[in-house]
């Protein structure tokens, strides 16, 4: 049996226009569905592909060498959610599925990686700040057992790129310990 190209199958399946927002040759990163919660547009400037520099903390005073990565964001689920994927110069890769749930007014981000495959995906939840940063949190104790969260911050978001910070924070937010920083420049726009 002859194999059909995925876009041909989509075009055949999409005869009635019900999947107009999925990735296609014309829109390789999909499109925002106008019926989606307005918050799905929080990621609009990230849609596309960025070249990034990633730096991990090794200990309290040392950061690892910079790692180059390609970070791609696209609309999925017919433009109702966002997916991202990272491809790292060391051969590593990871990704997330990002859904906004209107009932809770929160983003829920489910993370997957080749480093720690799991039967249950870890998830972060959060929202945007007044200045447009995206903040996501997940319960995580410090190595000494102190209760806290791992906070992810997307900042300086524009159509030209963004910055990303991962840090452990105490529950009262008085202690902040950055563990990972990523700086991204857009190379392919939606």
Catalogue the unreliable spans.
none
Q: In CATH terms, what is the fold-level topology?
A: Lipocalin
> What would you report as the Rg, rounded to the nearest angstrom?
18 Å
Shape: globular
Strand order of the largest sheet: 1-2-3-4-5-6-7-8-9-10
Our measurement of the CA-to-CA distance between the termini, rounded to an integer number of angstroms, reads 35 Å
**Percent helix:** under 10%
Structural category is: mainly beta
Task: Walk me through this protein's architecture.
The protein has 190 residues and is mainly beta. The chain has a single domain, classed as Beta Barrel (Lipocalin), CATH 2.40.128.20. Helices cover 4% and strands 48% of the residues. A ten-stranded antiparallel beta barrel has the order 1-2-3-4-5-6-7-8-9-10. 21% of the residues are buried.
Concise synopsis of the structure shown:
By secondary structure, the protein is mostly beta strands. It is 4% helix and 48% strand.
Which features characterize this protein?
globular; ten-stranded antiparallel barrel; single chain; 190 residues; mainly beta; Lipocalin
């Amino acid at each position: 049996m002859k194999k059909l190209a995925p876009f041909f199958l989509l075009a055949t399946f999409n005869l009635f226009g019900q999947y107009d927002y999925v990735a296609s040759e014309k829109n390789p990163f999909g499109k925002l569905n106008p019926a989606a919660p307005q918050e799905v547009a929080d990621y609009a400037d990230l849609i596309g592909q960025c070249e990034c520099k990633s730096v991990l903390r090794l200990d309290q005073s040392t950061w690892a060498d910079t790692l180059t990565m390609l970070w791609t964001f696209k609309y999925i689920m017919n433009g109702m959610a966002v997916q991202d994927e990272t491809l790292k110069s060391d051969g590593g890769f990871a990704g997330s599925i990002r859904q906004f749930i209107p009932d809770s007014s929160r983003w829920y981000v489910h993370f997957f990686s080749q480093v720690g495959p799991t039967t249950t995906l870890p998830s972060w939840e959060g929202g945007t700040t007044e200045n447009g940063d995206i903040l996501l949190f997940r319960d995580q104790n410090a190595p000494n057992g102190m209760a806290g969260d791992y906070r992810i911050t997307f900042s300086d978001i524009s159509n030209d790129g963004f910055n990303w910070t991962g840090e452990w924070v105490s529950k009262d937010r008085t202690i902040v310990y950055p563990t990972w920083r990523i700086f991204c420049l857009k190379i392919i726009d939606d």
